[in-house]
Give the backbone structure.
Amino acid sequence: MKNNPNSIYMLVFSLRFNRDWWRLQSLDRKDISSKMKEIEDKFSNQFISLKKYASLSKDSHLIYWISSDNTLKLIDFRFSIISNLRGYAEENDIFLSVFRPSPYMKKNSNIDYKSILNLPPLKYFVAYPMKKDPEWYLLPFEDRENIMKEHISMAINNPDNNGIRSYTTYSFGIGDYEFVVIYEIPDLRNWVNVVEKLREAKARKWITKEEPLLVGEVRDFDFLI
């Protein structure tokens, strides 16, 4: 049976550690961090993928990105992590979405989306919510398709786009936004070049929201100790 991408839920959430955390003795921080790792290990086999990053963004220190067939598992993991932190950290941003192929891309039923999501993480991670002007949805589909084809072509054919994995996920009716766009990136400098060039795409005209933006780098828990 082929995987159904419409059944894949994604949760991105960031945590900010407060002053009391940094005042703890290193051994105490190590104990809590070790238990967080135990929670990750417990849930990892229940998820399609579970990846974490040291945050490079303002107002957060740790970012989790999780893909799952089941929202209850997402809730259980989220609350287990928060409970273990004993009030030393708070959630800063949380994005819930559903992953499915873009209607503007050629459909390929042979793609194993779960295997792609389960690949080892690339060095950097970027995610942000997106919303479009209501006028966008009033355009005929053929017009929207042509506009998005230009955007997609500019991204795919950019030489600096080599190795970047992109995921367009959907949040209509389940968030204060319409999409969450997620990227795994081998080199941030190349990523900046790609994004700068995409500012010239016609599709930019209808975008009304692209923040807050979360940027992370793959790290072990040692940065918290």
